């Protein structure tokens, strides 16, 4: 019987196999046919501690029997309060910078980004109501960025086949060239010029652009970009949806650059990847611009499940795991494990541009049919699937983003499959 399920980012006409997963633990997915897969990308970059972490599973089960869901407009619950307090404590800090002290919950990375954009425009709008300047609205973005698939998030992402159908719905943005090695000054000069025109905000994925091709740039460039924005009073928004929760080696990527953004979006690993939740954090000036006795200025954003109590309980447990377990130690071991094995790929004639930041590794397969619409990525997916590995290359870019609990034997198997792919496709 054919399934009625319509899968995301899936071309059903290709009739690719759709594995049926029945159970998971750690870095392993168990399939209905009795076989298993190593999850090389943490199931779309979310299951940081591995699947079905017993503490998170228990927290969810407990909360589901206590308080499941509560309208969050004007009501609150302890799991949300605990997560908000914990998040604020964990945010990047720097001398002389206002802290990210206010937490707005939502339920996906895309909505966390939408909320960030709405906060930025809301800030300038409300200041204009006070006679403090123009209501700014233009958003600056970095070339090749990806921020999600809702309309606003697509508007600020790279334009391509994946959003072409919705072009009439997307708003215009100012695009700053990506800081490729040796061309960082070009980026900074373009940002300087664009900021002088008083846009509302500049949004970036800090240190690595994910879906845009796993493109890494150095902390000093992130810092310089944030400094330019501060000098021009342009709001600096960090989208840490992918980079957060230890992915780049530090809890948040901004830490490596000493940057405290005005607004920050987090999601994915916030619950250890067990259940959807996201948050957008803002500095006091953003919050205060919305706080008054005037109902016209309140922050008009909500969804039914804002700060769902079960999701918040999972996130609170994730924060406890970060506080009580040696997550940073596991990240250090995985980072080194990837570095040690990456050398083999770097010497392989089929690959170019080996790169790594923390627990994220990427390499480009030198292939004639490397375009986004070529059949290379589906063929690579099938190749890895046959070898017991869940990977989802971006065009000819093969990347890893494993759960931190992946063991050395599994990592060996992953790299053996990558070498085999080089031999086969190169
Ligand atoms: N921002 C970044 C940097 C992302 O990588 C993603 C997803 O991959 C998103 C936003 C969107 O998150 P979600 O898929 O949870 O909506």
Automatic annotation (TrEMBL):
The principal localisation class reads: cytoplasm
Pfam families linked:
Aminotran_3
The record's subcellular location field reads: Cytoplasm
What SUPFAM superfamilies has UniProt attached to this entry?
PLP-dependent transferases
Can you tell me which residues bind substrate? 44, 146, 268, 302, 392
Any one GO biological process = biotin biosynthetic process
Write the Enzyme Commission number(s) for this entry: 2.6.1.62
Q: Which reaction does it catalyse?
A: (8S)-8-amino-7-oxononanoate + S-adenosyl-L-methionine = S-adenosyl-4-methylsulfanyl-2-oxobutanoate + (7R,8S)-7,8-diammoniononanoate
The positions annotated for binding pyridoxal 5'-phosphate are 109-110, 239, 303-304
Q: In which pathway does it act?
A: Cofactor biosynthesis; biotin biosynthesis; 7,8-diaminononanoate from 8-amino-7-oxononanoate (SAM route): step 1/1
Record PTM N6-(pyridoxal phosphate)lysine, positions in chain: 268
Cross-referenced InterPro entries, in alphabetical order? Aminotrans_3 (IPR005814), BioA (IPR005815), PyrdxlP-dep_Trfase (IPR015424), PyrdxlP-dep_Trfase_major (IPR015421), PyrdxlP-dep_Trfase_small (IPR015422)
* Residues the UniProt record annotates as site (Participates in the substrate recognition with KAPA and in a stacking interaction with the adenine ring of SAM): 9
* Keywords annotated in UniProt: Aminotransferase, Biotin biosynthesis, Cytoplasm, Pyridoxal phosphate, S-adenosyl-L-methionine, Transferase
UniProt function note: Catalyzes the transfer of the alpha-amino group from S-adenosyl-L-methionine (SAM) to 7-keto-8-aminopelargonic acid (KAPA) to form 7,8-diaminopelargonic acid (DAPA). It is the only aminotransferase known to utilize SAM as an amino donor.
Family that this chain belongs to:
Belongs to the class-III pyridoxal-phosphate-dependent aminotransferase family. BioA subfamily.
User: Do you know which PANTHER family this protein is assigned to?
Assistant: ADENOSYLMETHIONINE-8-AMINO-7-OXONONANOATE AMINOTRANSFERASE
What HAMAP family is this protein classified in? BioA
Q: What is this protein called?
A: Adenosylmethionine-8-amino-7-oxononanoate aminotransferase
């Amino acid at each position: 019987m054919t399934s009625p399920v319509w899968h995301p980012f899936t071309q059903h006409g290709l009739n690719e196999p759709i594995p049926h997963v029945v159970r998971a633990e750690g870095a392993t997915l168990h399939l209905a046919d009795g076989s298993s897969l190593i999850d090389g990308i943490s199931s779309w970059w979310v299951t940081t501690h591995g699947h079905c972490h017993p503490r998170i599973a228990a927290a969810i089960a407990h909360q589901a029997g206590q308080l499941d869901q509560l309208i969050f407009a004007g009501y609150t619950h302890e799991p949300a309060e605990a997560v908000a307090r914990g998040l604020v404590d964990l945010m990047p800090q720097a001398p002389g910078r206002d802290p990210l002290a206010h937490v707005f919950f939502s339920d996906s990375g895309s909505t966390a980004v939408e909320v960030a954009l709405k906060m930025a425009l809301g800030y300038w709008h409300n200041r204009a109501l006070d006679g403090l300047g123009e209501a700014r609205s233009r958003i600056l973005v970095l070339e090749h960025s990806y921020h999600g698939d809702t309309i606003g998030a697509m508007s600020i992402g790279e334009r391509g086949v994946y959003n072409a159908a919705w072009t009439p719905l997307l708003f215009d943005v100012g695009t700053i060239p990506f800081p490729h090695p040796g061309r960082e000054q070009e980026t900074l000069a373009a940002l300087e010029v664009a900021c002088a025109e008083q846009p509302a905000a500049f949004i970036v994925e800090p240190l690595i652009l994910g879906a845009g091709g796993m493109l890494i740039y150095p902390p000093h460039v992130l810092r310089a970009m944030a400094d330019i924005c501060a000098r021009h009073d342009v709001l600096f928004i960090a989208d840490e949806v992918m980079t957060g929760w230890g992915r780049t080696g530090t809890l948040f990527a901004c830490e490596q650059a000493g940057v405290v953004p005005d607004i920050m979006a987090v999601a994915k690993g916030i619950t250890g990847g067990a259940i959807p939740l996201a948050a957008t954090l803002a500095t006091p000036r953003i919050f205060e611009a919305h706080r008054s006795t005037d109902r016209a200025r309140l922050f008009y954003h909500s969804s039914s499940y804002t700060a769902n109590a079960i999701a918040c309980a999972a996130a609170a447990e994730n924060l406890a795991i970060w506080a009580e377990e040696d997550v940073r130690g596991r990240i250090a071991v995985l980072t080194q494990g990837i570095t040690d094995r990456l050398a083999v790929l770097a010497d392989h004639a089929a690959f170019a541009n080996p790169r790594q930041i923390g627990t994220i590794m990427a390499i480009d397969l030198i292939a004639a049919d490397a375009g986004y619409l070529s059949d290379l990525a589906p063929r690579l997916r099938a190749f890895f699937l046959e070898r017991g590995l869940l990977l989802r290359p971006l065009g000819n870019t093969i990347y890893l983003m494993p759960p931190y609990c992946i063991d050395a034997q599994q990592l060996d198997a992953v790299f053996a499959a990558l070498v085999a792919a080089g031999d086969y496709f190169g």
